[in-house]
Amino acid sequence: MNNPVLSSLLPVVLLVAIGFIAGRAGWVRAEAIKDLSNLVFMVLTPALLFRTMSTVHVEQLNFKPVLMYFVAAMLLFGFVLVWQGGTRRAAVLGLAVTFSNTVMIGIPLVGLAYGQAGLVTLFTLISVHALVMLTFATVVLELAVAREKAAAGAGAGGGQHMLLTVLGAARSGIIHPVPLPIIAGLLFAQTGLVLPEVVDRPLQLLGNAFGPIALVLVGVTLTAVRIGDHFKAALGLSLIKNLAFPALVALLCWGLGLSGLPLSVMIVAASLPIGANVFMFSQRYEVAEELVTASMAVSTCLGLVTISLVMALVGLL
Asked: Which residues pair with 274 in a beta bridge?
């Protein structure tokens, strides 16, 4: 299979399909979905994030194109957050339209399309992608949860001071199974030490299990979700993620004079389907789970067309 888009996206579609078949056949019961979600979120994700970040040396990275990527992401995230009312649901949807599947799909796709030089640029993004996007989303979500709790207690004379609410949200955003291993991994990397094999190997095995299990879990969840009920909203989110986000990245990067391979990789990275971590966040915060699941499925399938279109247009720049 020589087409880089098909060779990268079809395995993802197949893993989701396997999960769907397993759920439909009753091999994974609905009651087990939450436990599996906790396994991914509390065990597999920290292992993957810590091990990945434990080899990243900040001084070796070129952050200029990555910075523009995150400026575009924050602008779009903020727009969706305000548009949807600043709630937990709004934060999850904001993450959905800005968080790309840079590892499971991005690495093989960019490697096939742009070679080793393209991968270096992508790895620069990946090294801070989760740190920036997931930490930011976590803080926003924890702040939204705190606001909801304060509002619920307001009638009884409760409610927290906003500064305490923000500080509490920031603390929850750092002492969390996503940002904490990223920060710990980065700090470890700066020491110059190398993880011993007896520690690195188990972390590698756990990290390798993240992508397949998360995608299979999405497929299992699809058996309990009627995509038809969410198709219109899922299609809207998918079009924003797959087309509007890369267009915004292209506009900002181009406006600042970026060109060549870094520009191409950043645009293609922005066009990737919604990443599996968004599904984990919707599960974790118990909000928009069915819509996010449907959006991931639609975004991934739509990506067969939209990524091909984006890559063709990028080739003309």
From this structure: 100
3-state secondary structure of 3: coil
Whether residue 49 contacts residue 178, with contact meaning beta carbons closer than 8 Å, is answered with yes
Q: Check residue 295 and give its pLDDT.
A: 93
Domains of the chain and CATH, by start = 4-314 (1.20.1530.20)
**Residues 238, 297 contacting (CB under 8 angstroms):** no
DSSP for 179-214, please give it.
HHHHHHHHHHHHTT----HHHHHHHHHHHHHHHHHH
The model's pTM: 0.76
Q: What's the angle, vertex CA 134, arms to CA 113 and CA 131, rounded to 5? A: 70
For residues 28 and 36, the answer to whether their CB atoms sit within 8 Å is yes
- What angle is formed at CA 253 by the lines to CA 189 and CA 316, rounded to 5 degrees? 115
Q: How many Å apart are CA 102 and CA 129, to the nearest integer?
A: 8
Distance between CA atoms of 269 and 107, rounded to whole angstroms? Answer: 9
SS3 state at 274: strand
For residue 200, what are its two tokens? 């690195």
pLDDT tens digits, one per residue of 216-249:
888 887 787 778 889 999 999 999 999 999 999 9
